[in-house]
Every structure is written in C-alpha cells, then in structure tokens.
Amino acid sequence: AEYDIKNIQWTTCKDFTVQRGQEQIEEYISTWEFHESWLHWTQFLEEEDTKYSKRYHYRVCWSTPTRRKPIPRATASVYFVIEVSKIKPATLPVEVFFVLETSRLIHRPGECRFREKWLKDIIENKIILIESL
Prior knowledge:
InterPro entries: AKAP (IPR053084), AKAP_28 (IPR025663)
Largest sheet: 4 strands, antiparallel
Structural class: alpha+beta
Number of domains: 1
Oligomer: single chain
Protein name: AKA14 protein
GO molecular function: protein kinase A regulatory subunit binding
Number of strands: 4
Strand order of the largest sheet: 1-2-3-4
Pfam family, one: AKAP28
GO cellular component, one term: cAMP-dependent protein kinase complex
Shape: elongated
C-alpha cells in the first residue's frame, strides 16, 4: 500500500533558535498518526558544539494516562537532534533526526513513517521488566 510520508518545512540555519526548534518538533509530531490517548511533552536537553555544526538535543516523553491510572507506569522517549551547520550556507534548512530510547536506528523526517507501535513496545517492555524485578 502506498503511504505519503509527511514532513514539515524546517527552519533555516540562520533563523534557528532553541524555542523555534521545540516548536518545529511539535509541528512535525502533529503530522504523525497516533491515538488521541497519547500525551507528550517536549524538553530541550542540551547544546553540543562540534567542529562543523551545533547540535541541539530534545526529548519528547510519551505516555498514555487513564482515569484509573493518571500516573503512567512507564513512559517512552523519542530523542530529537537538530543540527545547525557552521559551514553550509545559512539559508539552508537545519538537519533533523530522531531515535527511540531503545534503538540506535536513526530516523529522518520525510524519510520514514512513524509507528505508534514503537511507543507501545517501549512501554510494554519496561512494564515487563518492572514486574520481573
């Protein structure tokens, strides 16, 4: 089946700010398909200065609280990195990638389709681990 992978227009390197990055991550997440019971919050973690770029790290924490269990037993995190080049023209867009907390696979916006199952699997595995302890 054909599926249209959604993306957003990412800001240019010269227009990037930490706040703008967080807003754009939220905008990008709004293109994902997930059940309305999922809640998330986004947090800026740190700025990393490398030779050719600056990398801005964010965490998006996901959970599915319910009326019976308003405090979730486990959460799932998705880590975003927004890279602002020091050598490419400042009018080019920032580079963005993200990883799930249990994986080293790098996902790039516009190249992969988000799966709600990824979050469910992380939380289920954490609950299994907690119950086994």
